[in-house]
């Protein structure tokens, strides 16, 4: 983003992560202090969270790199040694991964309502299609059999009831 | 088709319709008293596998299953000072298929009065309180203290040097706190070392991790050669432990002693609601427990593991629980349990 | 130190009941399968099978459960290597080098390595146990808060060893995990950070969190790739390569032994013993190796270190269980329950009066180790094929399994919710170069570090030096800790000095 003659490079995703970590840490620190100031309570949490907040601040400043628009970009920090084994993900892939995560979230949120079996089935179909599995026959067959085996098996094995709709 | 219903889960409209239909089908074959139980029962243990309550639950489940004709499955729900397990049990339907083995006293009381649980002690009906403990103060065999008088003297002469291991939400902590207050000793004059459960305190006593420990005497009998008992928190001289009891000690120190709280009380519970909703099932359960407690094989097994099996019965048990509940239902006393 | 009458007694006991032998293979298989499905773990399998043991006699029941335990110890390695998701908390370190090896196409070797290390680990661990079961019991009971704190700290130094390019990120990840590990009711009764959510009273459920973080960071990063291993030819399950992995372990006997020793002794420490053992062994191996930077990229020795330690810690935690009646971790807690169901109590009396049963258990485990070799190899023939499944199918399937696994662990909604939250966190962390493993280590150790720190503070009256000086074991641990951190430095100085002298 531009701010007058300055250009500021911002890694938004990274920033978000740091903000989340710092936020949770801050909240936890506040909660702990509010419960009690006794040594037995604060001995680890307080110094650790302060240290953590400090580190977050440090990284925060590393996420935002201002430089004059006219001058060439300062040598980029050498990218974290790209794991030679990791295949680069295209933006499309990233979007898919994100949608997958959302799918998991939906699954977790809704299964008490519609039953674990139905939710699993829906999720499987959604995920398989999202990831690009072709085959109008294969997708429902695999999804159904997987659901039956896994959810059925789990409800048979586990001592506590699985919230399910159909069996 | 079997539909699994849980009071805590909301079901969508479709699901509810299906549920009702199934319920009507099932209802047509409803279970009469003679057929109870017609499926396995569950025994909730609000503690982890391998602990005292868990072992007792598993041991008795074998015999109970024989009496009732259905297997009994132990389900562990540890956490929060037994609170999570109590909450879970409380949420189950009061139809006789869910039992609980727990340390009713002091935890149910503490849950209700200190931790803000939304149940009350009256909601739990004890079938039998088989393990009634006593708090004791004990130390390792090679400890520098060989009598309670030495301990008291040391605390007074050198405040802030004696370490005491204890589990904070236990009756042992309550008794200890009452004792220290009666002696006129400040909390800060002793080093209280806190543990999450009784097991580590026991081992700490035996291993000499701290000077003395305040612990319940359950599970200590089998290991009595490994430690020294300094004092017993009881109103009468102890038949079990070779040490003076607290009232005796108070008298010789010339101090007033307000009250002695029972040690942990453990046993088996059902929902109080069950007594009214399905009285025949309740009676059957009580009868089964009673027969187990008279079974010589069961008795031998329990004794071998240092677990109680005496039959106290539901009425006496309930009275005991409520009485002890009242003993510590005192804001000042509860402050001692609440960490400041 | 060997009790000969107990020895003979054990021999006769082993021969008395064929059931003792019959249950071993099924147990191993169940453990292997359970451990290798990300989500189920060997503890869970033991929990499910526990009611079954009611119908067995005592010795077969114990053999069955310990076989599951043993099988699961290796099973966890399978999913760690093939998918980078630890099957149990004790296979976390195996992912560090095992998964990179798999991505390079060396999964056969890695699996073979891990199997051999596991087998040897169990074997050697129990041999050591044979000799030290009684004295170790006495030793463990003397471990006080100070000693436990030092062990936990030792495990924490793992975070530094995990590195990652930027120390700051590793520290943030580890520190954050540590902080999250303290949520809930602490050992002094204070309740923090629960936001009135009841299940958080007991802390954040570690296994779902761990699975969420690893699964998310691995699986989501793989979206877009077709297969786990790029090279099609490398995907075959190749027995020759498995065997070569096997045998390569035998080239490093001392290395293996060190890992095993660490595993046994750390495993004996009640609480998180077995989860910490593999981390400490890995960190130690990395620190003392000539080429530490190769760790984390697929150095077979990393897998060896981790697997030798986590298998031998089974033996170690058995000691604590038998000698003190204290569970060393999930698996031994199950065993204790089984003991109770059959009316046996652990504790010093048990050891003194029933040495023959103890020996029987130990010898039974020797047999299990040997059989694991065979059953494991057979299992690999099947399991290795996972890499041939297209990722598009594998990813959702593993996600569901992980979800069901987290439900199974907590028995209610708490597990899956935790899984989801940490999946999000794990993915973000992985994207920006924060070592997920550091966060998991912190989470695992958080409670232990805080509890022992508090107790050390309490018992020493607020940090009085006199307390520490009076505790030789704590001092020894502290010295060991410092030495182990300095060892690489010392080694370098030493080699430099030697080269200088030689060239002079």
Automatic annotation (TrEMBL), chain A:
This is Tripartite tricarboxylate transporter TctB family protein. The keyword Transmembrane applies. The chain crosses the membrane at residues 12-30, 42-60, 146-162. The keyword Membrane applies. Keywords: Membrane, Transmembrane, Transmembrane helix.
Automatic annotation (TrEMBL), chain B:
InterPro entries: BUG, Bug_dom1. It comes from Billgrantia aerodenitrificans. This is Tripartite tricarboxylate transporter substrate binding protein. The keyword Protease does not apply. CDD domains: PBP2_Bug_TTT. The keyword Signal applies. Belongs to the UPF0065 (bug) family. Keywords: Signal. Residues 1-33 form the signal peptide.
From TrEMBL, chain C:
It comes from the Bacteria. Residues 22-440 form the DUF112 domain. This is Tripartite tricarboxylate transporter permease. Residues 305-314 have a biased composition (Low complexity). Residues 289-314 are annotated as: Disordered. It comes from Billgrantia aerodenitrificans. InterPro entries: DUF112_TM (IPR002823). The lineage of its organism: Bacteria, Pseudomonadati, Pseudomonadota, Gammaproteobacteria, Oceanospirillales. The chain crosses the membrane at residues 20-40, 52-71, 77-99, 111-133, 139-163, 170-191, 203-229, 321-345, 357-383, 389-411, 432-449, 469-490. Pfam families: TctA. Keywords: Membrane, Transmembrane, Transmembrane helix.
């Amino acid at each position: 983003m531009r701010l007058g003659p300055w250009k500021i490079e911002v890694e938004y995703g990274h920033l978000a992560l740091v903000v989340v970590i710092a936020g949770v840490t801050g909240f936890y620190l506040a909660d702990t202090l509010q419960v009690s100031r006794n040594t037995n309570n604060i001995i680890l949490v307080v110094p650790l969270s302060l240290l953590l907040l400090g580190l977050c601040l440090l990284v925060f400043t590393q996420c935002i790199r201002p430089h004059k628009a006219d001058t060439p970009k300062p040598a980029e920090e050498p990218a974290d040694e790209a794991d030679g084994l990791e295949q680069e993900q295209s933006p499309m892939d990233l979007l898919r991964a994100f949608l997958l995560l959302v799918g998991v979230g939906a699954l977790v949120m809704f299964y008490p309502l519609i039953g674990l079996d139905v939710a699993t089935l829906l999720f499987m179909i959604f995920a398989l299609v999202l990831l690009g599995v072709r085959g109008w026959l294969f997708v429902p067959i695999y999804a159904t059999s997987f659901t039956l085996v896994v959810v059925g098996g789990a409800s048979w094995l586990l001592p506590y009831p699985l919230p399910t709709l159909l069996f | 088709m079997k539909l699994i219903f849980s009071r805590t889960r909301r079901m969508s409209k479709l699901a509810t319709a299906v549920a009702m239909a199934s319920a009507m089908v099932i209802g047509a074959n409803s279970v009469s008293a003679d057929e109870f139980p017609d499926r396995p029962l569950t025994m909730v243990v609000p503690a982890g596998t391998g602990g005292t309550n868990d072992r007792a639950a598993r041991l008795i489940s074998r015999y109970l299953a024989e009496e009732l004709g259905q297997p009994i499955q132990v389900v562990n729900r540890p956490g929060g000072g037994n609170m999570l397990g109590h909450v879970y049990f409380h949420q189950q339907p009061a139809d006789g298929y869910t039992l609980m083995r727990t340390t009713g006293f002091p935890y149910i009381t503490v849950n209700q009065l200190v931790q803000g649980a939304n149940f009350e002690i009256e909601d739990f009906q004890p079938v039998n309180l088989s393990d009634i403990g006593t708090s004791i103060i004990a130390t390792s065999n090679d400890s520098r203290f060989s009598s309670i008088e030495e301990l008291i003297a040391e605390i007074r002469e050198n405040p802030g040097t004696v370490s005491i291991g204890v589990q904070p939400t236990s009756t042992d902590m309550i008794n200890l706190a009452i004792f220290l207050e009666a002696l006129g000793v400040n909390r800060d004059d002793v080093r209280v070392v806190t543990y999450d459960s009784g097991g580590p305190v026991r081992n700490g006593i035996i291993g000499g991790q701290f000077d003395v420990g305040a612990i319940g005497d359950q599970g200590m009998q089998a290991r009595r050669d490994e430690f020294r008992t300094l004092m017993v928190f009881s109103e009468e001289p102890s038949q079990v432990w070779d040490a003076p009891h607290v009232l005796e000690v108070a008298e010789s120190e010339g101090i007033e002693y307000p009250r002695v709280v029972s040690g942990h009380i453990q046993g088996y519970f059902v929902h109080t609601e069950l007594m009214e909703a399905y009285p025949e099932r309740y009676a059957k359960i009580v009868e089964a427990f009673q027969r187990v407690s008279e079974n010589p094989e069961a008795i031998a097994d329990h004794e071998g593991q240092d677990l109680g099996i005496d039959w106290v019965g539901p009425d006496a048990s309930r009275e005991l629980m409520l009485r002890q509940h009242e003993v510590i239902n005192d804001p000042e006393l509860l402050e001692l349990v609440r960490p400041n | 130190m060997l009790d000969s009458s107990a020895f003979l007694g054990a021999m006769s006991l082993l021969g008395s009941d064929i059931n003792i032998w019959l249950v071993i293979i099924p147990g191993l298989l169940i453990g292997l399968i359970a451990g290798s499905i990300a989500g189920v773990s060997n503890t869970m399998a033991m929990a499910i099978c526990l009611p079954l043991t009611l119908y067995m006699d005592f010795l077969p029941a114990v053999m069955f459960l310990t076989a599951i335990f043993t099988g699961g110890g290796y099973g966890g390695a399978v999913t760690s290597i093939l998918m980078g998701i630890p099957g149990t908390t004790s296979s976390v370190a195996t992912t560090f080098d095992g998964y990179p090896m798999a991505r390079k196409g060396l999964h056969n070797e890695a699996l073979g390595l891990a199997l051999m290390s596991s087998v040897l680990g169990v074997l050697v661990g129990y041999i050591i146990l044979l000799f030290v079961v009684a004295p170790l019991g006495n030793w463990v009971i003397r471990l006080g808060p100070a000693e436990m704190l030092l062990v936990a700290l030792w495990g924490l130094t793992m975070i530094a060893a995990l590195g990652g390019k930027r120390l700051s990120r590793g520290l943030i990840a580890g520190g954050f995990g540590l902080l999250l590990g303290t949520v809930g009711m602490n050992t002094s009764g204070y309740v923090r950070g629960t936001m009135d959510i009841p299940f958080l009273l007991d802390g954040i459920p570690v296994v779902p969190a761990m699975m969420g973080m690893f699964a998310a960071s691995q699986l989501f990063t793989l979206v877009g790739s077709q297969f786990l291993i790029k090279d099609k030819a490398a995907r075959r399950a190749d027995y020759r390569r498995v065997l070569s992995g096997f045998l390569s372990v035998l080239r490093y006997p001392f290395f293996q032994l060190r890992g095993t020793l660490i595993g046994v002794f750390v495993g004996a420490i009640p609480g998180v013993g077995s989860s910490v053992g593999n981390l400490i062994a890995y960190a130690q191996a990395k620190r003392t190796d000539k080429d530490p930077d190769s760790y984390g990229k697929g150095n077979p020795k990393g897998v060896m270190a981790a697997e030798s330690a986590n298998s031998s810690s089974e033996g170690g935690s058995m000691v604590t269980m038998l000698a003190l009646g204290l569970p060393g971790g999930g698996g031994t807690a199950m065993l204790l329950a089984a003991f109770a169901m059959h009316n046996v109590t652990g504790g010093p009396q048990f050891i003194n009066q029933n040495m023959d049963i103890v020996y029987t258990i130990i010898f039974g485990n020797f047999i299990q180790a040997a059989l694991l070799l065979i059953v494991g190899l057979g299992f690999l023939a099947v399991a290795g094929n996972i890499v041939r499944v297209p990722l598009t199918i594998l990813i959702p399937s593993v996600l569901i399994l992980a979800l069901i696994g987290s439900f199974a662990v907590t028995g209610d909604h708490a597990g899956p919710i935790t899984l989801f939250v940490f999946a999000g966190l794990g993915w973000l962390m992985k994207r920006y170069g924060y070592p997920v493993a550091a966060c998991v280590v912190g989470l695992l150790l958080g409670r232990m570090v805080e509890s022992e720190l508090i107790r050390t503070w309490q018992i020493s009256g607020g940090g009085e030096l006199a307390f520490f000086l009076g505790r030789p074991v704590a001092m020894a641990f502290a010295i060991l800790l410092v030495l182990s951190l300095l060892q690489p430095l010392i080694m370098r100085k030493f080699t430099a000095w030697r080269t200088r002298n030689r060239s002079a």
